[in-house]
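ugh ok fine here u go
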Amino acid sequence: MADKPKIGEELKKMQEEYEPLLPVEKKLVAWSLGIGLSLLVILYLLSKLLPDSHRPL
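structure:
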């Protein structure tokens, strides 16, 4: 029966096998961050423009 690999050994192997991000992955990360930050700013500005819109009737 084969020996089960130890978790520590597997983690070390994963750290040694570093692969840089592909250009398309970098673009996806940048677009995601850009869209997320833009929406945060837009929603913040909307909440400042319409401060009483969240009040119950």
